[in-house]
Amino acid sequence: MSEDELLEPVDTPDTAETPQPVDNTFSGELYPARPPRLRPRANLRASRIQRSFSDPRSADATNASYIEWLIRQSMLRDAQVLSRGLSGQPSMWRNPYAKPDARRAIRTASVWFTAYPISLITEPGKSYLAALGDERLWDAFEAIGISAVHTGPVKRAGGITGWQQTASVDGHFDRISTQIDPAFGSEDEFRALSDVAEQHGGSVIDDIVPGHTGKGADFRLAEMAYKDYPGIYHMVEIPEEDWALLPEVPAGRDSVNLNAETEKQLAEQGYIIGQLQRVIFYQPGTKETNWSATAPVLGVDGITRRWVYLHYFKQGQPSINWLDPTFAGMRLVIGDALHSLGDLGSSALRLDANGFLGVEKSASGSPGWSEGHPLSEAANHLIAGMVRKVGGFSFQELNLTIEDIRDTGRVGADLSYDFINRPAYHHALAMGDTEFLRLTLRTSLELGVDPASLVHALQNHDELTYELLHWETLHRADLYPFRYEEITGAKLAETIRADLLGAITGDAADYNRVFTTNGIACTTASMIAATQGLTTLDAITDEHVENIRLAHLLLVMFNAWQPGVLALSAWDLLGMLPVPASEVSDLIAEGDTRWIERGAHDLMNVFPAATASSSGMPRGRSLYGSLPEQLADDNSFASSVKKILALRSASALDIGSQVDIPNVAHPGMLVMVHRLDEGDATLIDPPLQVTVLNFSGEHIEGTVRSPALASRRTVTDATTGDEIGRVDDLQSFAVSLPPYGGLFLLIGAEIDTMTGAISIV
């Protein structure tokens, strides 16, 4: 099934006919470009956004009706209307907003379920958002200990050609509207989801994309040079006398990517910044640079123009310009955020692609400054400050250096996705050796990144990232101890990447695929299966499920038994395997192998006969079964996760402080030492918690030794309540771990099993 088949066009009615609402599914996604009225709630009633249902005969700048229709579809217009509804209101001054507060965010939502709209199997006739708001699902979430749902992108995405909507090119991360995509539900269903979550003590997390849009109404108006709209984007008008520098746009396309030579020529002519620090999603013949040229476009002033525009990601994702004199891009993004928080009832927002908000030409002829730019920090401060100002919090997916994550987090988002340790714990499991994981944990602490500020996630909709940018960019020449020698950061990154590729893909497992230069497309379960020697999907039988489950629970323990947020997806909760590549062959044909890991799944067993989601994604194989089945079995994966989270909650470890990552006697062992101090560094002699994990498939007898431990204190296994020893005068104690086992230990403290209170012994 091709991506185009998932998103088919819908014919436009004639002007003589009265357009009627059309019920669409994801498999018919060239939607009529006539969205319903945006319904503001009480504090936004002044906005009165309205949209045109007119049917212009010609879709170009000669038709005033077409221009007016585009304006009414545009995010910038919505932002202007929405912002006026909040401006001057007392609600804008009720919350502190200057500084990030990770622990406040964690108290709001400590354990997240990360959803993916096109992969959730729902009851026939029930939308994605309605399914997420189902009381039975939230009963299951509450039983497990999940306190928030991250919906994933659910607003309209893709583009507009003429006046037809075109398909999303990147899983709905190419947003073109503030409206909910009808393929996923309605605004009322989103609000109902927020209400149900609140009734269960939970929250809803939405997305904004401050780095780019899709090629929707805003981009089409920008191409036509309409008012402030060109100021939204990094786009430059190329005079007609220099069109010879630009490549021809093939028939049926609206733009074409520039090759390196054209990029260089345009930079030398002073038109564009030119080469940037890297080309994300590089693919010869498809994306060789970060710049594309448009076809000739007639402007509203009667002038035909060609533009060159920046896109860090795919060609259909034009980058937003955060320092244009109109500040149009900033207004668009802030308006989108206010809509999600103020109108839909979200408690938090993910900032997607927020590390690429500043770009500057280099004076030395080297690549332009496009990552870790101060403008990105400033823009993130503005976005995150606005989110906090209206009572929410935000988190960022910033896959840059540890210093970038630290610096952006000092003034920007409250939380950051844990790209620091995610590839490292996969490497630890793949190799049965935690040396690199211990290095990443220690480096993070040394550079000032508090683990409580991180979202420790298992699988999401993206690949297992192995870019390791911290080591191969800023610190590529620095020396690090690894495997009994000192090697450079660049060599370290190369070694880790080679280890992961060798252990998880190719001959090791033909069902996991490399995704460009970013990482490996796989599920957590399929990554584990590969490390356990299962080379094909057919080789994974029922007899292998228990070993996969144990290793999977080990990774849950690593992410849960340290300060910060824990994030789980349905692919984790159900133990999903990738779909065979042959079932998504058209989707992965151009190199986006991530589609194999996005198999459809039925969380609550509401549609057992379904072979695909309503969006058309093929159903994947679940190793663990649905949540109702698992919660009825005390030894299941979900029931075991419930026990892991209960210990985390009872001790308030999620808002504690990490103090040591000690050396270990066995290479497969990992030890993390934490103060249970709720982040208060002035607290004297708080209880200590120690997480001890075995990343190997063999039994371990070992010793835990750390200067953070106080001698002669009791060591209690919180799982059983048994005292397993005392810290000796060398500040150590002995432990025993089964394969893939883990211990949650309290030092000088115990948990009252009735009240959950911790007391010093």
From TrEMBL:
Top-level enzyme category: isomerase
Enzyme Commission designation: 5.4.99.16
Keywords: Isomerase, Transferase
SUPFAM superfamilies associated with the record: (Trans)glycosidases
Biased composition (Polar residues): 15-27
Source domain of life: Bacteria
Region described as Disordered: spans on this chain: 1-37
Gene3D superfamilies linked: Glycosidases
rRNA-binding as UniProt keyword: no
Entry GO MF terms: maltose alpha-D-glucosyltransferase activity; transferase activity
PANTHER family linked to this entry: ALPHA-AMYLASE FAMILY MEMBER (PTHR10357)
Protein name: Maltose alpha-D-glucosyltransferase
Gene name of the record: treS
